[in-house]
Design a protein that fits this description.
The strands form two sheets. A four-stranded parallel β-sheet has the order 2-1-3-4, sandwiched between helices. The protein has helices spanning 12-24, 36-45, 47-63, 77-84, 96-105, 116-133, 148-152, 156-173, 205-221; strands at residues 2-8, 28-34, 68-71, 91-93, 108-113, 138-143, 180-183, 202-204. The protein is built from nine helices and eight strands. The longest helix is centred in the middle third of the chain and has 18 residues, at 116-133. The chain is globular and about 50 Å long. It has 222 residues and is an alpha/beta fold.
Length: 222
C-alpha cells in the first residue's frame, strides 16, 4: 500500500486531509505528524530558524514509510520543499498544485490570506508558476485581518464566515474583475462552501495537493 505523509502545524488539518485522501483513493494510506510549534517559531524567528526541525519531521515521516510527503503549512512549505530535494522521497508544499492551477485559470488572481507570512509565501510561488507556464498574471492580494485568532482558538465557524465576508467584499469591488480566487492557506478550506455564490472559481489547497500527491505514488507503489 502506498503511503502519503502529511506534516501539519495544526490538528484541524488531520481530518481534512484524511477525508480527502480516502475520497481520492482508499488504497493510499495517510501518515500524519502534527507540530504546531513549527508555525509559531517560523512566524516569530523566520524560516531558517525552523529548518532543522522541519528536516527532522520530514525524515521521521519518510522513516515511517511515506512515499511522498505533503507539508500542509503554507508558511513552512517553502523550506520543506527545499529540504525535500535532499530526501529520497518527494516533498510537496501544499500550495504548489493550487498555484499551478490558478495561473492557467485566469489572468487576474485574487490571493487570499489571513497571515502576512502566508501572503509572503503564496505571491512569489504564483509568480514562479506563471513564469513556468509562460502566463501573464496580475495578483490581487486580499487580506483578512483579525481572522486568524478564531482559527487558533478552534472557532472554525467564525473563521470561515469572516474569511468569506472579506473575500466576497474584495471580489465584488474589484475593478477590473478578478478571474479566479485562491485561498492561500489550507485553513481557509472551511470558507470555500460559503463562496459558492461568487461568479469566479475559488481554488483551495488541500484537495489539489492530495490529488497531486496520489498521482505521484499510485503508479510506482500500487
Amino acid at each position: 500500500m502506498a503511503i502519503v505523509g502529511f506534516l501539519h502545524t495544526a490538528d484541524a488539518h488531520v481530518r481534512t486531509f484524511s477525508d480527502l485522501l480516502a475520497e481520492r483513493d482508499r488504497r493510499v494510506e495517510p501518515r500524519h505528524l502534527v507540530d504546531s510549534g513549527l508555525h509559531t517559531a517560523a512566524r516569530r524567528s523566520g524560516l531558517e530558524h525552523v529548518r532543522p526541525s522541519v528536516a527532522d519531521r520530514l525524515r521521521r515521516l519518510v522513516a515511517e514509510g511515506a512515499d511522498v510527503v505533503v507539508c500542509t503549512c503554507s508558511t513552512v512549505g517553502p523550506v520543506a520543499e527545499e529540504i525535500g530535494l535532499e530526501l529520497e522521497v518527494p516533498v510537496l508544499r501544499v500550495d504548489r498544485p493550487m498555484a499551478e492551477a490558478a495561473v492557467v485559470a485566469g489572468r487576474r488572481i485574487a490571493v487570499v490570506s489571513s497571515l502576512p507570512e502566508a501572503a509572503a509565501s503564496a505571491l512569489p510561488l504564483l509568480r514562479e508558476c506563471a513564469r513556468e507556464a509562460e502566463r501573464d498574471v496580475e495578483l490581487v492580494p486580499v487580506d483578512c485581518p483579525g481572522t486568524w485568532p478564531a482559527f487558533e482558538e478552534g472557532d472554525l465557524i467564525t473563521y470561515a464566515t469572516s474569511v468569506a465576508e472579506a473575500v466576497r467584499c474584495a471580489v465584488r469591488s474589484a475593478e477590473p474583475p478578478v478571474d479566479v480566487v485562491v485561498l492561500a492557506q489550507a485553513s481557509m478550506v472551511v470558507a470555500a462552501p460559503l463562496l459558492r455564490d461568487l461568479h469566479v472559481p475559488v481554488l483551495t489547497t488541500p484537495r489539489l495537493a492530495v490529488e497531486a500527491a496520489v498521482e505521484r505514488v499510485v503508479g510506482a507503489a500500487i
